[in-house]
Amino acid sequence: MNFQLTEEHIMIQQAARDFAQNECKPGVIERDEHQKHPTELLRRMGELGFMGMMVSPEYGGSGLDTISYVLAMEEISKVDASCSVAMSVNNSLVCWGLETFGSEEQKRKYLPALASGETIGAFCLSEPEAGSDATQQRTTAEDMGDYYLLNGTKNWITNGGHAGIYLVIAQTYPEKRHKGINAFIVERNSPGVAVGAKENKLGIRGSDTHSIIFNDVKVPKENRIGEDGFGFKFAMKTLDGGRIGIASQALGIASGAFELSLAYAKQRKAFGKEISQHQAIQFKLADMATDIEAARLLCLKAAYLKDQHLPYGTAAAMAKVFASETAMKHTIEAVQIHGGYGYVKEYHVERLMRDAKITQIYEGTSEVQRIVIARNVLS
Length: 379
Ligand code: CAA
Description:
Blueprint: H1 7-24, H2 28-34, H3 39-47, H4 66-79, H5 81-101, H6 104-116, E1 121-124, E2 140-143, E3 147-158, E4 165-171, E5 181-187, E6 193-198, E7 209-220, H7 231-267, E8 269-270, E9 273-274, H8 279-307, H9 313-338, H10 349-358, H11 366-378
Helix pairs in contact: 1-4, 4-5, 4-7, 4-8, 5-6, 5-7, 7-8, 7-9, 7-10, 8-9, 9-10, 9-11
Acetoacetyl-coenzyme A binds next to strand 3, helix 7 and helix 11.
């Protein structure tokens, strides 16, 4: 067992930290307040290689491992979880799903633009009546011979308003239930694709979340991913990796709140000494540091298993449930450590607390992660 990062890992971590602190931090409060999409920053992240981190250089990606991805996600999420969710969906749901299960033609056609940040992707699984119970897809993809006719509505789609490419999960053979589901690549400018209203959210307010409506959209046969009926497995397998990304986002939100709290506690005085000298604050910092380290190790372990091509679904679920609950618990503590200052925007921790909540919900709620873990321990 080796807990040592390589020199390359440390360089990537430093590059992500520099980008987050120098380029994301300056406008983050304003983007949050006005729900402003970080379009330019995402383009810049593409230039820096953060949008297709694990994509092979053959298809325009950075060719890095999942550990590098976890390290970069943590650093960017410390500052701006709206940027990091766009990065996570693009990397681990869209690019990874396409590279792993797409045809050679699909990979050549779509991956270079996604990996370079020229466009971004969205993953369209959730529906008004199919969230955790993802088999209940109402969106239909009728087989019309040389194309599929797509009809339905997807909800809470991250990157929805800015994506150029949607991966869409839809039902082709309702009588076969989840075995009749397919996954498709749908171009944003296809006739019949409409972007619904933008959600006004509690957190990750820079990220654009929309419903997407498909009305008689003709999807070419060659845009189906994998064998006929592979769509549900495609979604589940892709989400296993996506959960490593969201776990790392939660880790970053927690560690960002910890770093701010530590610095504040060393500088703020009360009752004649720095508040870091009071045991009430020391115990909070000790608990934060311990939980964050445990979350980091779970994220890195899941990433390591994925890189070694070993089963990682349960490890990813454990990382996600633990890291997201750590983020929620300790961002609340970070606000408490900051006292009245913690409740105002300039000190960043109230935003981190709002951003933390979604990590317990998207890419599988904490309850869904516990279903996945329980099934594994009981099998
Ligand atoms: N890998 C491969 N196959 C899998 C799998 C996995 N991880 N999980 C399930 N499957 C397969 C099963 O083996 C089964 O196949 P067979 O019938 O051939 O045996 C099939 O899928 C159905 O599985 P289950 O019987 O386990 O299905 P279920 O109805 O009990 O649901 C669930 C299981 C874990 C709850 C699943 O529905 C789930 O993960 N739900 C949450 C969905 C989710 O994460 N949504 C997030 C939306 S995307 C998002 O948030 C992106 C964003 O924008 C940020």
